[in-house]
Amino acid sequence: QVHLVESGGGLVQAGGSLRLSCAAAGRTFSMYILGWFRQAPGKERDFVAAMRWSNGNTYYGDSDSVKGRFTISRDNAKNTVYLQMNSLRPEDTAVYYCAAKTAYTGTYFSSREYDYWGQGTQVTVSS
What we know:
This protein is an all-beta fold. The protein has strands at 2-7, 10-13, 18-26, 33-39, 45-52, 58-60, 70-75, 80-85, 94-101, 116-117, 121-126. It is globular.
């Protein structure tokens, strides 16, 4: 089992920044990729960013909506992955989830590929 706990969400004005954290515990050696997803009310859970835990390679969603504004990073010693979000927009409002994928096959951008999920943290961006 891998246990994931997100933190850092909150209410911020448009143009502001937030840094989300995801602390992993348990069988962390089994983590292949750690990813961030978000889900707005009434919408599907969308891929935001991911990192291959072994070598730090990063991946971002195709949508231009997050490129250049969001950055995924990690602290190996703390088994923690971060999502730095800058220039936030009202459309970034969503529950943000951290997830761990253990299989070496499959894709990193599909939520179905992930085995473990955190409880989510709410991000609200006011206009």
